[in-house]
């Protein structure tokens, strides 16, 4: 997908989404929106995606979730804000979503769907059933690819939040909280049937990457900047 088409697609999809949930979109002047905007813009500045029209919107929904549409259109649910007590934890969430935008995962997904059309047709002809065809394509192609994208966004996000001088410890911390939330959720599904990697795997991977970014954080980010990041969570 061409970059200009990706930007137009993201703009169109995000406008439709905001219109669909217009009664649940928080005002940009609200404290939660201002917090997300402040942290999100700081991370977006270090992403070096100057042609993106970054937009950060908060939706009133209880589940802890966030998403990214093409071209830097990012949505955050209030349930995620309730879970992310510190700015470092919220920065990890937003940096992960910015990571998706930087890696152009949405455009990659659209292109993959087009490339899979002849594969689906061939498999349907061989298997003589579209149902089994879709199950196999999802199980062996789409879901593993989605999980790889999530792990890549975790890594890019960790680098971005560090570059923006947020404490990278916030990344495994928020995923630990999300894992605890998932354990309280009876609808938890196995990793191989999920679009996301298992929480324990993500936490272990992120903790293993911390030494790689902590030196940059400690040498490039002055104590005053780190202190401001911690204090800003209480001053919107």
Question: Could you walk me through the main structural features you see in this protein, from its secondary elements to its overall organization?
Answer:
By secondary structure, the protein is mostly helical. Helix content is 67%, strand content 6%. It has nine helices and three strands. It has helices spanning 3-20, 31-45, 78-83, 87-103, 105-127, 130-163, 170-183, 199-220, 223-231; strands at residues 55-59, 66-69, 73-77. A three-stranded mixed β-sheet has the order 1-3-2. It is globular.
- Helical content band: 55-70%
How is the biggest beta sheet arranged?
A: 3 strands, mixed
Q: Report the total helices.
A: 9
Low-confidence segments, given as residue ranges, are 114-133, 189-193
The overall average pLDDT, rounded, is: 80
Strand order of the largest sheet: 1-3-2
Distance between the termini: 38 Å
- The structure class reads mainly alpha
Using only C-alpha atoms, the radius of gyration works out to 19 Å
- Please write the string of helix (H) and strand (E) elements: HHEEEHHHHHHH
Give the helices and strands, then pairings.
Layout: H1 3-20, H2 31-45, E1 55-59, E2 66-69, E3 73-77, H3 78-83, H4 87-103, H5 105-127, H6 130-163, H7 170-183, H8 199-220, H9 223-231
Helix pairs in contact: 2-4, 4-6, 4-7, 5-6, 6-8, 7-8
